[in-house]
Amino acid sequence: MPPPADIVKVAIEWPGANAQLIEMDQKRPLTSIIREVCDGWSLSGSEQFALRYADGPQLYITEQSRSEIKNGTILRLAISPARAARQLLERIQSHGIDARLEALKELAKLSADPTFATEFINMEGIGTLARLVESGTHFGEMLAFTLTAFLELMDHGIVSWDLISLSFIKQIAGYVNQPMVDVSILQRSLAILESMVLNSHNLYHRVAQEITVGQLIGHLSNQEIQTYAIALINALFLKAPEDRRQEEYTNPLEQHLTEMASTLAQKHLRSIILNHVIRGNRPIKAEMAHQLYVLQVLTFNLLEERMMTKMDPNDQAQRDIIFELRRIAFDGENDPTGTEKRKAMYTKDYKMLGFTNHVNPAMDFTLTPPGMLALDNMLYLAKVHQDTYIRIVLENSSREDKHECPFGRCAIELTRMLCEILQVGELPNEGCNDYHPMFFTHDRAWEEFFCVCIQLLNKTWKEMRATAEDFNKVMQVVREQITRALAMKPSSLDQLKNKLRGLNYSEILRLRQSERMSQDDFQSPPIIELRERIQPEILELIKQQRLNRLCEGSCFRKLGNRRRQEKFWFCRLSLNHKVLHYGDLDESPQGEVPFELLSDKIPVSDIKSVVTGKDCPHMKEKSALKQNKEVLELAFSVLYDPDETLNFVAPNKYEYCIWTDGLCALLGREMGSDLTRSDLDTLISMEMKLRLLDLENITIPEAPPPVPKEPSSYNFTYNYS
């Protein structure tokens, strides 16, 4: 007979004594259980003790968290959180250096525990740590442990960052600005400053006065701290208030850049990130990839204001830009003197430039997006790549009317399309690592990207022999060419050009045909019958592959961790498919993680269901910033008895499909991901082709001539066994 659901069998350790094996009744008060355990070892004052996990993070067990205890868990009797906090607070203020160092080391470890953190903070522990930092008397390991404990305690969100003093900020900023500082101190200082900027509007101003992006650039050459430095740059960029985003440049070639943008756009920063990070001698880890993605998104978001700015047809400065486009293309020095003649010539030239409104082309830029951003791109092409610009315009103006590619209309629509592809104006997605190295290879990467794509559009238009009626079809092909090329992650703009050359219109048609064949190949009735016969065995094959992948396990990043010391956890299915093992890791693993290192487990028999997306508990709890589309698409949760959840955010769409399909297969439910449908179609098509090839190799004996009969409809039945 199985034990009652409220009874868990655990082992409890105490230094120097034999472990106690007890059956813990989850309905009994925790204080009563602790008193019984203390009596077993003849320990008095049970109220001074508590239970902690013996493995993993070794968190304290509370009435709220005790439901997570599983059968077979090893616990440890320890002094209570309040008593531990009091003792450590006294020891870190002692005069003995060795005793203080040991206390700070232990404090740095215990501060990650929310129960201990609450007690320590209630005893004014954060203020004590802040004063130790402000005194400037701590160095080396002692200072590193102090900053670690401070950061861990603040990360619980129990107290507001606004309570931090200016002298503390100056001291932390001083560590960042000093030329020779221990790496561990520098990492924690940068992480603390980042948290200040992200969590407090007031502290942003104070930090910005002490730390500039220029000062942080020097840290990017150090591989140990470059992730922390870029994270702080991103935080300063993200939280910069509007009053620092209003400094315009007078040069018409310059975009409406912000003060922060002018710093981020400088060549020095870009080249250091390119040479020391992207092209460095170390592989880029997930957290660094995320920070590069965030920097890329924030940089492109500087285009949003121009993208959403309509052109004012009465603004002479803006109209002058259109005149400049005409002058460069047609050499406007030979303009006729008469007003009417000049107006007629302008109308003709604007038509040749491909504007929709030939009389007043300014009206073409009143739609947002792309607004004035399209005009900025066109001017950049005309100024910087003048020969290309003139060639495109004159080449199309000399074609037959029905085959000319309207440059103005194409440039405007292409700008809008590129804004959609690169998600200009959208906030970064937490957990996304989709950065493009080529955008870090040029000071004007956006404009150069546009110039490459407008030449692609003109080339594709000619390959398709398109007319004005085909405009939307051409834009669809160009979008497909660009997205396919970006998916290949070209490392430079030259590589992008090479990828696009290989994706001409003929290749796009071939790829479409190939993909279409893999989706709806062989639609005749006998082939459909064969497909239906093959499908169950292919599904079983896919199911076994998914379960095997779950047995290998996967690493997941902890959602919401804003600090640069990456936190991970690993989950894998037992080889007999009966238990899910999981546990925290200090770093991303290289390969398979042994079951012994995964301290927690869930019996598969306890799993009630698997939910995805916005139905996940951890997605309902997240803020609007984190509750974005990409994170929602990668989120899933395992619901198990009694009312517990294990929450996941997959690192990518592939892992999401593998895990959701595998869990559904584990529970005997239908696997319904896009990956399964794709795998099913691919494998069935391959198997069908193999079987049909076998049929083609069969020698069929000659049959006697058929007896003539009246015409009728025939039903053919094929036996492929």
Structure description:
Keywords: Apoptosis, Cytoplasm, Membrane, Phagocytosis, Phosphoprotein, SH3-binding. Residues 317-486 form the ELMO domain. InterPro entries: ARM-like, ARM-type_fold, ELMO_ARM, ELMO_dom, ELMO_domain-containing, PH-like_dom_sf, PH_domain. Pfam families: ELMO_ARM, ELMO_CED12, PH_12. It is found in: Cytoplasm; Membrane. The structure is a single chain. The protein is of the alpha+beta class and 721 residues long. It has helices spanning 30-40, 81-91, 97-110, 114-122, 125-135, 140-155, 166-177, 183-199, 201-210, 213-217, 226-239, 259-264, 267-278, 286-300, 304-307, 316-330, 339-352, 372-384, 386-397, 407-421, 445-463, 471-487, 493-502, 505-520, 525-552, 617-621, 629-634, 653-666, 674-696, and strands at 7-13, 20-25, 49-53, 74-79, 554-557, 568-573, 579-585, 600-603, 607-612, 635-640, 644-649. The strands form three sheets. Strands 2-1-4-3 form a four-stranded mixed β-sheet. Strand 6 (568-573) and strand 7 form a beta hairpin. Residues 245-257, 623-627 and 695-721 have low confidence and may be disordered.
